[in-house]
Amino acid sequence: MNANREPEDTPAGLYGPDGRPQFFSDPAMDRFVPVVLNLASEIWLQHEAIANLKALLAKHGILTGDALDQIARESATDETREATLREFLVRVLGPLREMA
Amino acid sequence: MALQLQHSMRPQHSPDDIARGRFVSGLRSFILNDLAQDMRHAYDTRAARSFEKLEGRTPQSSAEAHKAMRPDPAFKVYSACRVHAQSMVWDSVIPVVVRNSDQMDRAVDETNAMQQVALDPNLIVPRNVEGLDVHLMPGGYAKRDISQVAAGAIYDQGLAVFSMGLMGENLDDIGLSMSAYIRAAFPDFKPRDILDVGCTIGHNTLPWKMAYPEAAVHAVDVAAPGLIYGATRAKLQKADIHFHQMNAESLGFESGSFDVVFSSMFLHELSAKTRAAFFKEANRLLRPGGLLLNMELPPNSQMGAFEGFYLDWDCYYNNEPFYKGFRDQDPRALCRAGGFDDADYLQFVVPSIGIYGAEAVEEAARAPLSVDQETTGRLAEGVQWFGFGAWKVA
């Protein structure tokens, strides 16, 4: 939030040096709250994706524990998953970065 | 609940889009209902008492309630969560709009929407629109780096997530509730020409055409993307609305052109200077017997300190720098300064027609509701809208 967007009667100390609101005495806390919310969002997305997939598999009569386990084992060396993990970390943990 | 818009301009959502939208909407609902309740409790049991120990009295104003709350953990948690949830709203919709951008551009062409839009290439878009990420929306209303309509689409989609299903299936609950109230309260009033100023994407303009189908309905805004998107959206909803790119300080219509000048959630986004000019323009544009009606946030003077602080939060943390300045003004004085007589002032609280139903709106027209309630102007369970304005002397 830059200076020209601050209301005229803004009390002192509302914003940190980066112009963003600062609520906690330790500014690191202000960066951790978004991480927690980002994580919660990602968990929910996975929850929905799994629920959708399971519903599809069950609909076609092919949902078995063994088949899912086998796919998980095969993914252990999957480079695409590694790249996806990197994207995931940048997305969720981005608020921790000072240069983001 | 993440709202799935019902009009044909809505984009195609991937499964992740749906899940993300549902999550952010649910998160906001948790913050604005549950955490807000915690904050109220913290104010009553801790913050106001601490303030009283220091000052010898409880907080008397929104600013004092803000000062009292700032050290409290409930305020910090609520605020930090709410600020980030707001960013998550836009993060959840911008990629959707980018992916659907070509389809939206085609819709503009296929509907011939531009026939309904009068753009002004010479209009200077005010700095508080062009250079402000209002509501933390990246690029604001005038963002043009994705497409000619993307900013309008982002606003529409973002509001669908933001509103948690509380603003109507096409985000038109304010317009529907306000126009239904006017019809119920003033059954003999038959406007022929209606103007919506600061219409953004015209989502609250369309209900006026539905309420008064015989009337010609015009809508203006300074930001072109919303106007083009809004015209397309209106076409797809088969509503005949005329959109114009104009500044509320100087509206390019002849004096005495309208029977209703309406605005919704508009005045708090204007500088004091522009706001004052708009009231004069509204007076000039109205015919004798016409009505200026603004749906807005209720004024601080008619609310308790905590309720005022709760609404003013957006001023400091949601990039709405004129919000508190507007709420600190007296709505009657604003009308008076615009040339309206005090005797012709009106204000009311109308229950959301989507939540409470048409009968509740009609009842409110018969038996006025009090402004000073936690549900007035607050986007949370049980929301009610505040309206004020004035009749122009016949």
Describe the structure.
The complex is a heterodimer of chains A (100) and B (394). Chain A is an all-alpha fold. Chain A is 58% helix and 0% strand. In chain A, 8% of the residues are buried. Helix content of chain B is 47%, strand content 13%. An 8-stranded mixed beta sheet of chain B has the order 1-4-3-2-5-6-8-7, sandwiched between helices. In chain B, strand 3, helix 9 (224-236) and strand 4 (241-245) form a beta-alpha-beta unit. In chain B, helix 1 packs across helix 2, helix 1 runs antiparallel to helix 3 (73-99) and helix 6 (150-162) packs across helix 9. Classes of the chains: A mainly alpha (100), B alpha/beta (394). The A-B interface holds A 1, 4-11, 14, 20-21, 23-24, 29-30, 33-34, 37-38, 40-41, 44-45, 47-49, 52, 95 and B 15-16, 18-20, 22-24, 27, 63, 66-67, 70, 75-77, 79-81, 83-85, 87-88, 131-133, 315-317, 319, 321-325.
Write the layout of secondary structure elements.
The complex is a heterodimer of chains A (100) and B (394).
Chain A: H1 27-59, H2 65-74, H3 79-93
Chain B: H1 15-55, H2 62-69, H3 73-99, H4 101-110, E1 117-118, H5 127-130, H6 150-162, H7 173-185, E2 193-197, H8 206-211, E3 216-221, H9 224-236, E4 241-245, E5 258-264, H10 272-285, E6 286-296, H11 305-317, H12 323-327, H13 331-337, E7 345-351, H14 353-356, H15 358-366, E8 384-391
Parallel strand pairs in B: 1-4, 2-3, 2-5, 3-4, 5-6
Antiparallel strand pairs in B: 6-8, 7-8
Helix pairs in contact in B: 1-2, 1-3, 2-11, 3-6, 6-9, 7-15
